[in-house]
């Protein structure tokens, strides 16, 4: 049986005096791609920050591979890509990866593999500041892949990318999961939902569904996740109340 990479229980987070996550719980299995979908401001980034251990929790718990999120033992097991590009503009792609490989104490042999995985071989010597937004995001993703993480946390990695690239990136996420890692990907684009093994639908700091995309559509008697989301919000879906 698949083990859980992540276990979140009764998680409450406050930011700026407001309750941003309102007591949520879920698990992510090893070897799976879990999607996190919800409108802007619903708390996706805050949840991801909680998993990587950079967010103060008001109550509840977040365990990753059986350790408390943020503990030192997890540092090299998690790859995290935020919405901010985290690579240096004045270095080339390869120079960036060399720098981060040193910081992370990772074998230099991983550099070429990571560049190939994000399809930047043809731009490996280009200065990051001269790359397109999508190429820069892929350079950040390559940094996260350097340590061959067991959990990859990706905050809206496909924003602004063309459809072909988005498709290729999702293929890469599944390849990473097939090798046994857990991949947690957020998006506010509902049509990306079907690319996930399992989905969390989130609204205003609450998880309104936690299931496979097929089951979410089935239970809400809808044809797509956007309609399912609306059905859940409006309470019109069959058994909608039992979804989460
Ligand atoms: N540094 C902060 N201080 C106070 N409140 C914050 C801070 N960062 C975020 N928030 C608030 O927390 C809530 C959740 O924000 P969060 O960034 O987690 O949402 P999100 O779903 O990731 O949004 P988006 O899709 O736009 O990135 C929002 O209402 C936001 O205003």
TrEMBL record:
Record bears the keyword Nucleotide-binding: yes
SUPFAM superfamilies named among the record's database cross-references: P-loop containing nucleoside triphosphate hydrolases (SSF52540)
Keywords carried by this UniProt record: ATP-binding, Nucleotide-binding
Transmembrane domains' residue ranges: none
Alphabetized Gene3D superfamilies for the sequence: P-loop containing nucleotide triphosphate hydrolases
Domain annotation ABC transporter: ranges: 6-229
InterPro entries in UniProt: AAA+_ATPase, ABC_transporter-like_ATP-bd, ABC_transporter-like_CS, P-loop_NTPase
UniProt-listed PANTHER family: ABC TRANSPORTER G FAMILY MEMBER 20 ISOFORM X1 (PTHR43038:SF3), ATP-BINDING CASSETTE, SUB-FAMILY H, MEMBER 1 (PTHR43038)
Protein's recorded name: ABC transporter ATP-binding protein
Organism: Nocardioides islandensis
Native organism taxonomy: Bacteria, Bacillati, Actinomycetota, Actinomycetes, Propionibacteriales
